[in-house]
Design a protein that fits this description.
Layout (H helix, E strand, L loop, with lengths): L1 H28 L13 H20 L5 H23 L3 H28 L1
């Protein structure tokens, strides 16, 4: 159980750090300004994000204590998908949501690779 917990912690920490770096590089490459992508676009985006995160915590805590990585990955993509939808719906610059889609795909593959490497060696 401790090894599984260490695996998940390593995957999440490395995935978040590398994911943030990849996102910054993609946005710089696609020439998307940071001012074009605020933390929350509007109150709908803020309420939806809080709802998704609260739902994740409830489901993770009460139903999936043993297999938390799968739940985390599923809710990561639900959260990112919601963010991409709100960017597409409420921003005028199409480069913003396209950069988010590209980042999500690359980060997803990266998380899968990190999971395989960590599972192989630990």
């Amino acid at each position: 159980m401790l090894i599984n917990s260490i695996n998940i912690s390593v995957i999440i920490i490395v995935g978040l750090v590398l994911g943030a770096l990849i996102d910054k590089l993609i946005r710089k490459w696609m020439k998307v300004d940071d001012k074009d992508n605020p933390d929350y676009l509007n109150s709908f985006h803020k309420r939806g994000s809080i709802f998704i995160l609260a739902l994740y915590l409830i489901i993770w805590r009460f139903f999936f204590e043993d297999n938390e990585l799968i739940v985390t990955i599923i809710f990561f993509y639900i959260f990112i998908g919601f963010t991409i939808y709100t960017e597409w719906k409420h921003l005028e610059d199409p480069k913003v949501y396209k950069a988010s889609i590209l980042s999500a795909l690359i980060i997803g593959v990266l998380i899968l690779v990190i999971y395989c490497v960590v599972s192989w060696f630990i």
